[in-house]
Design a protein that fits this description.
heterodimer, A: 160 residues, alpha/beta, Aconitase, domain 4, seven-stranded mixed sheet, 8 helices, globular, B: 427 residues, Aconitase, domain 3, five-stranded parallel sheet, 15 helices, 33% helix, 18% strand, 4Fe-4S (chain B), IsopropMal_deHydtase_lsu_bac (chain B), 4 iron, 4 sulfur cluster binding (chain B), EC 4.2.1.33 (chain B)
């Protein structure tokens, strides 16, 4: 996966990712239209499918709404890179199959607009613009199994 | 090995003797909760699993409280989906308007929670139930779906934080101020992934309602759960509510779920809170706190008293104490939302509603409503609200350029009368 980086600050909360006023539906395409709206109302029109969201600390804090990772995934973002993720967002992203990569060094080494390549299986984040590469924190084995299965529901179906 | 109360509950539900931070475990759940925003996606995911029935018809609680009474057609469709799902699978605990309440006020009130329970809810404020000595945490809709099907959930055992509150609280300082103070000290990610255990002489004196307020906002510090060891107060509270479990069962739980004296904590915070004032969290993070005396000339357009944080009967009594014989400032809209039908009814019996009406408050049927910018008091561009709710993120109560200031009940009520943020002392 390869695309442009869009940088966001620390503590991007779920209300910024998808405001509650749009939560009277759980339709992914509908939610995607309003993705990151209260962080940057113009973002959804500027971004291209395949671009990455690069956050700071505590990305996805606040509500338990799974609509947040769903909106990001449906907007065409292939993965979110952040210094750290809030707990429920982290679970939700894994459960619905939105790849997340935790790497403070990568976030510090990426500027808005940089061209980024991510090798998901290896956890490699390559900044094509600067030529530097970074390694995301590896998932524990059990979580990697969930991810490989394509999320929690598929994992449970296979175990049944 | 010495264990904390959170570790003991997790170990019990994982069928293990002990658990250690970082360990990945599979736990049986005692209760699974969903609301009208999170249940519809969970119901869709549940269908994909392909099981014929839910794991337990009595242990699933579906509470449509966020956009109810349905604020628009789409919201009505979401609740309809829940209602039909409950009917189809014989789920006993579905709560229609007229008997519902804000979920985290409703469940403790009806005796659904006992010490030692392991609870997950597709709502981040599910951490509220830690007030009764349960391990309770928020998850997303897919986790809810899986738990409805198999009655299990995976956890990474969190590291443990301990918060000791000592001293004597000043007048008008409430449980809300203790938790806002805590978040102000450690930040919105100060307890990220961790358990927050609250203890100390101040906590021992705190009512269960106050503990519910504190545990409710553990998530605002990033916590996985907030927890209070069960004590005499827990026991007294449950005695009036829990019908199924015998008293001796509760006594046993009380004794069993206490942290061992030498349990390991990642960090212990030891605070004397005698000098703290009521706290106000300025936009746009709950950690952005200031003592109320430092709030100068913050004019407000609205005051909201209610929510899963502060919509209980003790809260309404405090509001009535301040509002009695007074009127809202003519520039302020005052909205008071009793969190459940039973609280509303009790407030009527005590004459509180009459005081609110005379103060020109709009008193609403239970709903989360304005807390998440749903309905019942949305802010226009540039408007400010003081609120007893739990989040003041950008756009939380309406327009992205509106502002929310979080406070305790007394400050929200006094500010409604003054027209700007003020301590009840200075009213």
């Amino acid at each position: 996966m390869q695309g442009k980086a869009w940088k966001f600050k620390d503590n991007i909360d779920t209300d910024l990712i998808i405001p509650a006023r749009y939560l009277n539906t759980s339709d992914p395409a509908e939610l995607a239209k309003h993705c990151m709206e209260d962080a940057d109302p113009t973002w959804i029109n500027k971004m291209q499918k395949g671009d990455f969201i690069v956050g700071g600390e505590n990305f996805g804090c606040g509500s338990s709404r799974e609509h947040a990772p769903i909106a990001i995934k449906a907007a065409g973002v292939p993965a979110v890179i952040a210094k750290s993720f809030a707990r429920i967002f982290y679970r939700n992203a894994i459960n619905i199959g939105l790849p997340i990569l935790e790497s403070p060094d990568a976030v510090d080494g990426i500027s808005e607009g940089d061209e980024i390549e991510v090798e998901l299986a290896k956890g490699n984040i390559i900044n094509k613009t600067t030529g530097k590469s970074y390694k995301a924190q590896a998932f524990p084995e059990f979580m990697q199994k969930l991810i490989d299965a394509g999320g929690l529901i598929e994992y449970i179906k296979r175990k049944k | 090995m010495q264990q904390t109360i959170s570790q003991k509950i997790l170990a019990k539900h994982a069928g293990l003797k002990t658990v250690e931070p970082g360990q990945l475990i599979n736990c049986k759940v005692d209760l699974v909760l969903g609301n009208d925003i999170t249940s519809p996606p969970a119901i869709k995911e549940f269908a994909k699993i392909g099981v014929a029935k839910v794991f337990n018809k009595k242990k699933i609680y579906l509470v449509p409280d966020h956009f109810t009474p349905a604020k628009d057609i789409k919201s009505a469709e979401q609740v309809k989906m829940m209602r039909e799902f409950a009917k189809k699978y014989g789920i006993v605990n579905f709560f229609e308007i007229g008997c519902m309440g804000v979920e985290h006020a409703l469940l403790p009130e009806m005796g659904a929670i006992i010490p030692g329970d392991l609870i997950i809810g597709a709502d981040s404020h599910t951490c509220t139930y830690g007030a009764l000595g349960a391990f309770s945490t928020g998850v997303g809709s897919t986790d809810m779906a899986a738990a409805m099907a198999i009655g299990e959930v995976w956890f990474k055992v969190p590291e443990q934080l301990k918060f000791i509150f000592k001293g004597k609280l000043k007048k008008w300082v409430e449980a809300k101020d203790l938790i806002l103070f805590t978040i102000g000290q450690i930040g919105v990610d100060g307890a990220r992934y961790m358990s927050m255990e609250f203890t100390g002489s101040v906590i021992e004196k705190l009512s269960i309602e106050g503990r519910l307020t504190m545990a409710n906002m553990a998530i605002e510090a990033g916590g996985k759960n907030g927890i209070f060891a069960p004590d005499q107060k827990t026991y007294e509270y449950l005695k009036t509510k829990v019908k199924l479990a015998s008293w001796s069962v509760i006594r046993d739980l009380w004794a069993k779920f206490q942290s061992d004296p030498d349990a390991t904590y990642k960090q212990t915070y030891d605070w004397d809170v005698s000098e703290i004032e009521p706290q106000v969290a300025f936009p746009h993070l709950p950690s952005n706190t200031k003592p109320v005396s430092k709030c100068k000339s913050v004019k407000i357009d609205q005051s909201v008293i209610g929510s899963c944080t502060n919509g209980r009967i003790e809260d309404l009594r405090i509001a009535a104490k301040i509002l009695k014989g007074k009127k809202r400032n003519k520039n302020v809209r005052l909205i008071i939302i009793p969190a459940t039908q039973a609280i509303y009814s009790q407030a009527m019996k005590e004459g509180l509603i009459d005081i609110f009406m005379k103060a020109e408050a709009a008193v609403s049927t239970p709903t989360c409503g304005p807390c998440l910018g749903g309905h019942m008091g949305i802010l226009a561009e540039g408007e400010r609200s003081i609120a007893t709710t739990n989040r003041n993120f950008v756009g939380r109560m309406g327009h992205p350029k509106s502002e929310v200031y979080l406070s305790n009940v007394a400050v929200a009520a006094a500010s409604a009368v003054a027209g700007y943020i003020v301590s009840p002392e200075d009213l």
